[in-house]
Amino acid sequence: MVRWVPIGPIGPNDPTSGQRYLLLQQFQCDALVQSVEGADDAAVWLAGAAVCKALQSGSQQDWQRASIAVAATPRIPQTQCLEFRVAATSASLLAQHRSNPDAVFIVEPGQGEACPRQLVGLTVVDEELRPIPGLARASGPSSGGTIVRLDGYYVRVGDVLFDGVPVDAEFVGARDDYQPVYLRMPSSAGRDSIRISITDTVDIAGTVTFFYDDPGTATGSVPPPETASPGTGLPGRSPSATPPPTAPPSGAASPTAAP
Fold first, then answer.
1. How far apart are CA 17 and CA 22, in angstroms?
2. Is 234 within 8 Å of 242 (Cβ atoms)?
3. More exposed terminus of the chain, fewer Cβ within 10 Å: N or C?
C-alpha cells in the first residue's frame, strides 16, 4: 500500500496550481499533462503525472519515464505547499518502486492536508506594498500607520484579532480570495507589541507579532525572543498557501515575527 497526495484543501475555483493539484489528486494524469503544456513551472506537475501514470499501469517503461521526470524536478520551497507536496510524493513513490520494482501498489489517499491554513509570518511593506528590507523584526513607530502583509496560507480572511480580541482592522488594498492581505497597524496605545491572529472559512492556526520600536514610548514587556523569526514571504496561495506551500506574495519577504 502507498499513499497518494493528500487533500489540498482545494476546490474548482482555486488558482491554477489548485486546479492542477485537483487533477492529480483524482488521478487524471493525461489531463494534467495537457493542462501544463508550455507552462514555466511544468516540471513538478509532469513528474507527478508521470508517477500517476506509472501507478496506474505498473509498466516498467512508465516507471522509467517517471524516474526521468522526477530527476528533472527543480527544488521546490515549502512555501509552495501544493507543488512541494507533489514533488515529495512523487520522489517517495519512486523510491518505494525502486526498493521493490516487482510490487503491484495499492494506492490510498494521502493523510492530512497539503496546505493546512495557517498564519506564519508578518512582513513590513511600503505604500506600494513592496517588502522593506533590513528590518530586524516586523516593527514600526508607536504612532501607527505601518503596513504589514499577513504571510501564510489562507483563502478568505474574516476577522482580525489583536491580542485575541476581534478588531475593526484597517485593510490596505483588495481582499481577494487566495491573495495576500495587508493591514495598516494602529497606534500603540502604550503597548510594546500586538499579537495578530485571523479567522478564515475554516480554522486557521498561528499568531504573529508586530512590535513598536519607538524608545521609551511603550510600557509593557516584550514577548520572549522566540516570537521573532526570519521572514517567510509565504503566499496567500499561493495557494498557495505551503504553505506553501500553497502555490499560496512573491519574492523575498522582509523580517517576520512568527509564532
1. 9
2. yes
3. N
